[in-house]
Amino acid sequence: MKHAMRTLLQRTTHARRAALALAATATLGAAPLAAHAAADGLLPQIHRDTTLINTVPDNGDQNPYAIFVAPVSAGAVKQGDVLVDNFNNAANLQGTGSTIVDYHPDTKQMSLFATIPRDLKECPGGVGLSTAMTMLKSGWVIVGSTPSNDGTTGTKGAGCLIVLDSNGKIAKTISSPNINDPWGNMAVVDNGDHATLFVSNAGFGVGSADGNPPVFKQSTVLRLDLDIPDGQAPAVKSETVVASGFGAQADKGVFLVGPTGLALSGDNKLLYISDAIGNRINVIEDPLTRDTSAGVGRQLTADGMLHRPLAMVVTPQGHLLVTNALNGQVVEIDPVAAKQLYARWIDTDKAQTPPGNGDLFGIALTPAGDGFYYVEDDVNTLVLAK
């Protein structure tokens, strides 16, 4: 009964937000939309935000982070299902979430995909599931851990990548000196029997969030080239740091701030990185073939509509969609023209200042590319914008 009442309250809250969103779009979003009324893009085609499900599983895990849409049907997962992981446990301690849930669009129901032991010994520091998650065409699910013992960065471990089979069972872990708090949503090139993953690592140097924690410019983007033999778990063939020198900082409110969004251009020749500390989007050239770090690469765009950019995806138009951490907007960017086109309010919760501040994390396109999924972590919901 308590859970049902909470779900009803969250639905009512989101209905109120939907009404506020219309007003916010008219007042706050009118300028960028009017300025680029003739431009093509995905955000002008989005008309409605629909709350789909409460993402809290039976163990009470909360703070939904990563979102990934299943590319195939395998095991317990059906093609088009939406996998969502949780960063916090039932006590709302950051870096302690251990579950992945599976939303089924065809039945509009949710099931528990995986519960990973919090004290997984093969993962340095244990388990706290981050925004780094993917499902491969071979059915394997790979998820990052940025763990903490008490919900603070003062006790965080280096973490790892955890490989799960398509029924949510642990197959192996991947850890190395190059992996330290895999933080951001992964960019992936998946060729079936082999794949390439890009994951940001934001833990290097970061310690306690007490006082005025310093910014450590040690965050990296790591390329992992995987072999995937038939019926066997992915094996790391090689690993290469392709970007380095991005800033990361411990933070009491959001655990840490560091590079989060990763996305590849359509031809895979450019890797886009959302640099939260720098409030910018940067570009790394030749990410699949380079054998040295490009440092922070070149800046594509900064400031403007960006307010601590987080998760990022590429639209069918070749644009970037980026969620903001410091307000409830998603921003669309034309990377060829290096222009910020639109900012749409998708979370107008006035309980935060500015509205939606700190609520948005993962983002994923629908299979048809006509909308996107996102999470509102303050009310633990998965939402469809379409």
List keywords for this structure.
386 residues; mainly beta; Neuraminidase; 25 strands; disordered N terminus
Précis, in short:
The protein is mainly β and about 375 residues long. Helix content is about 10%, strand content about 40%.
Q: What's the helix count?
A: 2
| CATH first level | Mainly Beta
For the record, the count of structural domains works out to 1
Return the string of H and E elements. Answer: HHEEEEEEEEEEEEEEEEEEEEEEEEE
CATH topology: Neuraminidase
**Helix residue percentage:** under 10%
What's the total count of β strands?
25
How would you name the oligomeric state of the polypeptide chains in this document?
Answer: single chain
Strand line-up across the major sheet: 10-11-12-13-14
Distance between the termini: 31 Å
For the report, how would you describe the main beta sheet?
5 strands, antiparallel
Mean pLDDT level: 91
Q: Which word captures the global form?
A: globular
Roughly what fraction of the amino acids lie in strands? Answer: 35-45%
CATH architecture descriptor name: 6 Propeller
Low-confidence stretches: 1-38
